[in-house]
Amino acid sequence: MRTPIIAGNWKMNKTPEEAAALVKDLIPLVKDAKCDVVVCPPAICIPAVKAVLAGSNVKLGAQNVHFAANGAYTGELSAAMLKAAGCEYVIIGHSERRQYFGETDKTVNQRTLAAVAAGLTAIVCVGEMQDERETGYTNILVTYQTQMALHGLTKEQVAEVVIAYEPVWAIGTGLTATDEQANETIGVIRKAVAAVYGNDTAEKVRIQYGGSMKGSNVKGLMAQPEIDGGLIGGASLKAQDFSEVVNF
Ligand code: 13P
User: Fold this and answer.
1) Is residue 166 flagged as an active site residue?
2) Does this model's pTM top 0.90?
3) Which of 18, 134, 166, 184 is catalytic?
4) Cα–Cα–Cα angle for 200, 184, 181, nearest 5°?
């Protein structure tokens, strides 16, 4: 059985002070969670959030990582830096990185390899745009994105990776994939893992849904057999809202 994992992606929201206040409010609300709980604040908030999370069941993640160990990469952070700052997880290849910052399947792969090598759990994002769904390319696309992102990892490493299926048209729009749509595409992603790494590995990989997931729709999504959790944007920015997702 796969342990569900609910992660909050705060994106570019919250100052360090606001971030600390949010997790302070969150901790008592999610202390009995039956799933793994992760928050991914902006990098500048990581120290403040880490200090508040000490001794709680809420884990810390980052929103991006560079693939090089160090060097002339202005504005970037290495996996070792994130690890040293107390991160256990890192989101890689979010559609906003792909759309606005030129992230490619190749760099997503490089970042995933670096994160895993440093002992971080990668949350690798895949998902189609609206026109790709409409033209019938969703399955081909998520298969390609998934296999490319994981290329070069061992079976054992792949089993520990978390994949987030985020249909781009459902992010921040209020549109959610139906429970069945999300389950079906996540099933396709699991088959894409199985095709390269075998069924045993694919059955261990946790695959989240992301895209306007919130308290009012979490139950239906989590009842689907393929869906192992959620990557939550808007609804992770308030303690009460996020706790409703975590305590599904
Ligand atoms: P929303 O939950 O705001 O749609 O964002 C989803 C997301 O992109 C999480 O990474």
Assistant:
1) yes
2) yes
3) 166
4) 150
